[in-house]
Structure formats: structure tokens, C-alpha cells
Write a structure and sequence with these properties.
Residues 462-481 are annotated as: Disordered. The active site is at 2 (for gatase activity). Pfam families: Asn_synthase, GATase_7. The protein is α+β, with helices and mostly antiparallel strands. It folds into three domains: 2-231, Aminohydrolase, N-terminal nucleophile (Ntn) domain (Glutamine Phosphoribosylpyrophosphate, subunit 1, domain 1, 4-Layer Sandwich), CATH 3.60.20; 248-519, Rossmann fold; 537-603, no CATH class. It is 38% helix and 14% strand. It is built from 23 helices and 17 strands. The protein has helices at residues 17-34, 91-102, 113-127, 191-196, 248-266, 281-296, 333-340, 342-346, 358-362, 369-374, 389-394, 397-400, 407-423, 425-433, 446-453, 474-483, 493-498, 504-510, 516-519, 537-545, 548-554, 559-568, 576-595, and strands at residues 2-9, 42-47, 53-59, 73-74, 80-88, 133-141, 147-151, 160-163, 170-174, 211-212, 217-221, 227-231, 273-275, 351-354, 438-441, 462-463, 500-501. Helix 2 packs across helix 3, helix 13 (407-423) packs parallel to helix 14 and helix 22 (559-568) packs across helix 23 (576-595). The protein is globular.
């Protein structure tokens, strides 16, 4: 786990290199203080000879602290420099290929050094297909003057960029936006992006001129000031009009093989590794696979001996704690994740395996049922495992009207929007790295995801036949529709969802590693309360945050509207949608104070 910051000045410097060097060093040092939680155990700084480029890297105890492992890393000729956040899995195999195929001489044992090797041999366009893991990096080539900023396929690790407010402006890149504050950047609300949703979706953020490097993309900043965005990976799904030739058993085996391999790779570490175990399907499968790997294959979870046991701890959370986040928090789930993420570090275990990504890849969310049912899946012949004809035919007009789009499209949209910009931020990197805890997401292994995306929709969701099955005789069906439409089994979407088995192929793939109880368990999402007592701690906290002065300081929110929301969001009749507004505006209020953002009206 780690964090990074980079500052690059283009054009001709206007002051002496010694003066510039001191300025760059000062800015990097102050940026470090704001990102210290991302790597509290070591730091490394590099500034080039004319002080036009500076790189800062923060690392934690799970990193290679040898002189050759500390970052920034440099090529043998000292002309290429890189800082990397994250983990490259199976890097020993990559190192072996680099040594054998093009005689690359590695200077240390850091997994990040393979990026230097691959870049020098394959170039930026060819290196990504060799990388497996979660990562973000900044690479600077002295000969070309180009800066490359790249992010992993799903956006597990964050990376932002902007330009300073100084003259001449400097390119700034950091793991978190707060890292820009000491580097000549003046935050301004991007009201248009906030109102249109662009601050959450795509490359936009809450602040003018600050952009994300998109998942599966790299951005090239040229010496001439050009900025070019390139996509190196995207999710591709099976064409359901093409007949599937694999049997269900073959597909289950394919998922199991890749999932076991993904877990195995994420157990490799120089420090202890733990697992978040919620009792649900996803984390239980990860725990079950880990248990088998340790007991039967002798795999060690990090540097722990296999006799070590998993211990569960209770969670306590200070009522007066506040946590600020750039992405909108639509619920309080991140508070629970924030509290949970403190526990591994307290026990001396900086790495944790989690179950995130299973719902996104295997269609585990209830709202995806409608997309699954909307159109038939012609890729897979009907079997008892995948048969859902009765369910589709039984849908009455009321339920059918709620159905909109096909499952692969819904999965793709969710992958590119909510998962990348909310699930992996509020519930992922920010909550975990606030406590210097590194999460590893086995279900977001891209080799596993690519295989799963190529499976027919019907193996992800399956129809569970009710005890009193609906008659298959067409005349009888029509009779039932006319005589007792309200007693019809599939009367509404709630009833439909109750008969759908989600993540079917994952359940089958994970069955050898879990109990029957877990196998048959319905989804119980990790969620926080929506209803809070009137005059309780939550309402009092938000009243303290959303004062007239604080709201008006934003410059684009009406205090009267928020005041009414404060009064109607709590209690038994509280509206979750209203509470969501309070939560989002409260987040803006905290950021306004922490970042010193001027009211939006003063920018017009």
C-alpha cells in the first residue's frame, strides 16, 4: 500500500534551479503530511537535476524497504523514473520472463520494478497486458519528456491530476486530491459538474480542473503541453445470440479455477494477511478457498505460519469522529467500513482480503433481476438449472412494466459508474487507506472477470421453481390470468426477486469451500441504518455541520431547503432520499472547511 505525488513544470523555468529545487522539495514535503496515512512507514523523494520534475512516494510495512526497493524507482541508465501505488501480482513470473526474454537486469525485488522493465521493452501501449493487480503509477521519461499516469482496470487505486494556479502552471498528480493543497492549487467548486452528475461519473470531480485518470486508461502528458487519454482495457460481455457450447460443469470449473488462482496470488505477501468475513456468500468463499490453500497446498497467508488462526474482533466507533470523502456518500455504509478497516492494523495485519466485486461480476444485486428477465438468453439451452420460461411467461403487465434493459448492459453501466466512483472509493480505498490498511479484491482479478463476462447471463441468475409451480398448460395460464390476476404468483417484482437465485455459477464454483447454509443463503447486504432518532446523535451532528453559515459558504445550496430536510430526515417517518441529501451536502460542508474552498458565487 502506498501513495504518490508528482509535480512537473513544462516550458522554460524562470528561476534558478536551486531555488526551484527548494520550492519543489517544500511542496512535496507538505503534500506528504496530508497523505501520510497512505504510507506511514517510509518515504522516498526524487527531484531531477533542473528541478522541473519531483516525485514523492509513501510506503507501508508491506513494501520492499531495501535501498533498491524504495521508490521512486529508476531505470539502469537513470533516464526513466516511476512511482507506483498498489500491488502487481505474479510479479516473480513476470520478472522471470523479462530476464529470460530480453535479459533485463533487476536492481531489487520490488513488484513495482516490473513496470520499468515492461515499459522499456514493450512501450506504454504494450506493458498493461502483462500487469495483473490493482495499481496506479506515474512514469517520467527524460528523453521524451513525456509523463504517463495510469490506473488499473477497475479503478481500485485512485489517481487524480490537475494544474496549479501558479504562472507558469505546473502539472500535479496525486493519489488523493488533498495532496494538491500545498502545491499551488486553489480549489474551486465545479457547480456544473456537481449538478449534472459529471462530478461522480467519468473523469470529473467536485473541483474545477481536477480530473481522475479513468479505470483501464493511461494519460500521456507531452513536453509540448498536450494531454492525450488512452484506453487499454474494457469489459466485454458474451453475445447471447451465439449458442454456448460449454456445459454448465465446464463453466463452473472455469470460474473455480480462476477464483482459486486469484485468491492464491493475493495471499502472497511479506506480512500477515487477514480476511473480512461477513458471513455472506462472497467473503465465505474467499475464506474457504484460503483455508483449503493453507491446509492442502501449504500456501501461507502472507508471512504467517499455517497454524495461525483467524480471530474476530468487535468494532467500536467514536461518535464524534468525522471522515471526509471526495465522492458522494449516498449512505452511511462507509462509516462502518471505516471503523472495520482500523482493526487489521491494530492487530498488526496490514493486508486484508475482501469480497468486493462479486456482485458486480456475477450479478448479485436485486435491481439486476429486471435486466435479467427483460430479454431471453438464447446462448444457453434450457436446463433445469437455467430454466426460467415459466417465470417470464408468468410476469403480469404490472411487473413487466418495471423491466427496462438487458443484464450485460446493466452490469457494464454499473461497472463504469457506481462501482468505480462510489463502491471502490467510499467503501474501498479511502475507508481502508485512512488506517493504512491494504485491501485485496480477489473477485476483481481481471482474468477472472474476463472469463465471467464471457458467460451467458443465465448462469449468473437462475429461476428457483416454487413448490406450487405454475401450470405449463397455456389454456390454464390464460384462465388464471383472467380469473385471479391478483393471486398470480409473480404479482410484483418483490415476488420475482424472491424466486431468483443470484450469482448461480459462483455458488456452484464456491460450493466445495462453504457450508450448505452459506450456499443457500439469500443476499443480506452490508448496510447502515436509514432511520435515525429525532434529536439523536446523528441529527445533532448534521445540525452542527449544516449551519446557515456553513451552507451559505458553499455558494450553490439553499439553506432553507436543507433546513427543511434536517427536520424531515429523522424519525420513523424519515425519508431515506432526504437523508441522502443531508449526507451529501454535509460532505461538501466538511470539504469546504478542510480545503478552504471559496463560495461558488464569488467565482462568477
Amino acid at each position: 500500500m502506498c501513495g504518490l505525488t508528482a509535480i512537473i513544470q513544462s516550458g522554460s523555468p524562470q528561476n534558478e534551479s536551486s531555488e526551484r529545487g527548494a520550492d519543489v522539495q517544500s511542496k512535496l514535503t507538505r503534500s506528504l503530511s496530508l497523505l501520510q496515512h497512505r504510507g506511514p512507514d517510509a518515504e522516498g523523494t526524487w527531484i531531477n537535476s533542473d528541478a522541473t520534475v519531483g516525485m514523492l512516494h509513501l510506503s507501508s510495512i508491506d513494501s520492499d524497504f531495501s535501498p533498491t526497493g524504495l521508490q521512486p524507482l529508476h531505470s539502469e541508465d537513470e533516464k526513466i523514473h516511476v512511482v507506483v501505488n498498489g500491488e502487481i501480482y505474479d510479479h516473480f513470473a513476470i520478472r522471470g520472463r523479462c530476464t529470460t526474454e530480453f535479459d533485463y537486469n533487476f536492481s531489487g525485488r520490488s513488484d513495482s520494478e516490473v513496470i520499468l522493465a515492461l515499459y522499456q521493452h514493450h512501450g506504454v501501449r504494450g506493458l498493461f497486458k502483462h500487469l495483473r493487480g490493482e495499481f496506479a503509477f506515474v512514469l517520467y521519461g527524460e528523453r521524451s519528456g513525456d509523463v504517463i499516469a495510469a490506473r488499473d482496470r477497475f479503478g481500485i487505486k485512485p489517481l487524480f491530476w490537475t494544474y496549479s494556479s501558479e504562472t507558469p502552471a505546473k502539472l500535479l498528480i496525486a493519489s488523493e486530491i488533498k495532496g494538491f493543497l500545498p502545491m499551488g492549487w486553489g480549489p474551486e467548486w465545479d457547480v456544473d459538474a456537481i449538478c449534472s452528475g459529471a462530478a461522480v461519473l467519468g473523469e470529473g470531480t467536485l473541483f474545477k480542473g481536477v480530473k481522475k485518470v479513468l479505470p483501464g486508461h493511461w494519460v500521456q502528458f507531452g513536453r509540448d503541453g498536450s494531454v492525450t487519454q488512452h484506453r487499454y482495457w474494457d469489459a466485454e460481455y458474451a453475445d447471447k445470440t451465439v449458442k454456448e457450447t460449454r456445459s454448465m460443469d465446464e463453466m463452473v470449473d472455469g470460474v473455480r479455477e480462476r477464483l482459486v488462482d486469484a485468491v492464491r496470488l493475493r495471499l502472497q505477501a511479506d506480512v500477515p494477511v487477514s480476511i473480512y468475513l461477513s458471513g455472506g456468500l462472497d467473503s465465505s468463499i474467499v475464506a474457504g478457498i484460503t483455508t483449503q490453500l493453507v491446509r492442502e497446498r501449504g500456501v501461507k497467508p502472507g508471512n504467517q505460519d499455517k497454524k495461525d488462526r483467524i480471530t474476530c474482533f468487535s468494532i467500536s466507533f467514536a461518535s464524534d469522529s468525522q471522515y471526509n470523502e471526495y465522492a458522494p456518500q449516498l449512505d452511511m455504509n462507509s462509516v462502518g467500513k471505516y471503523a472495520l478497516s482500523e482493526l487489521p492494523r491494530q492487530q498488526g495485519i496490514p493486508i486484508v482480503l475482501t469480497g468486493e466485486g462479486a456482485d458486480e461480476n456475477f450479478a448479485g444485486y436485486p435491481f439486476l433481476v429486471s435486466d435479467f428477465l427483460r430479454e431471453p438468453d438464447d446462448a444457453l439451452p434450457l436446463t433445469e438449472l437455467t430454466k426460467d420460461t415459466e417465470l417470464r411467461e408468468a410476469l403480469n403487465e404490472s411487473a413487466a412494466a418495471q423491466l427496462r434493459s438487458i443484464l450485460p448492459s446493466a452490469l457494464y453501466v454499473f461497472l463504469k459508474t457506481s462501482m468505480a466512483n462510489m463502491v471502490l472509493t467510499c467503501l474501498g480505498d479511502r475507508s481502508e487507506m485512512a488506517h493504512s490498511t491494504e485491501a485485496r479484491l480477489s473477485f476483481l482479478d481481471h482474468e477472472l472477470a474476463e472469463y465471467v463476462n464471457g458467460l451467458p447471463p443465465r448462469v449468473k441468475m437462475s429461476y428457483s421453481k416454487p413448490e406450487d409451480s405454475i401450470e405449463t398448460n397455456n389454456d390454464e395460464k390464460e384462465k388464471r390470468k383472467k380469473v385471479a390476476p391478483q393471486s398470480f404468483f409473480w404479482e410484483n417484482m418483490a415476488a420475482v426477486r424472491d424466486r431468483i437465485i443470484d450469482k448461480k455459477v459462483l455458488r456452484e464454483a464456491g460450493r466445495p469451500f462453504i457450508t450448505d447454509k452459506i450456499y443457500n443463503r439469500k443476499k443480506h447486504p452490508y448496510s447502515s441504518p436509514w432511520k435515525w432518532p429525532v434529536e439523536g446523535p446523528m441529527q445533532r451532528m448534521f445540525r452542527g455541520l449544516l449551519t446557515k453559515e456553513a451552507v451559505e459558504c458553499l455558494g450553490f445550496v439553499d439553506f432553507g431547503s436543507i433546513s427543511r430536510c434536517l427536520e424531515t430526515a429523522s424519525g420513523e417517518s424519515g425519508d431515506p432520499a432526504v437523508f441522502r441529501k443531508i449526507l451529501v451536502v454535509g460532505t461538501w460542508g466538511v470539504l469546504s472547511q478542510k480545503f478552504g474552498v471559496k463560495p461558488a458565487r464569488s467565482q462568477r
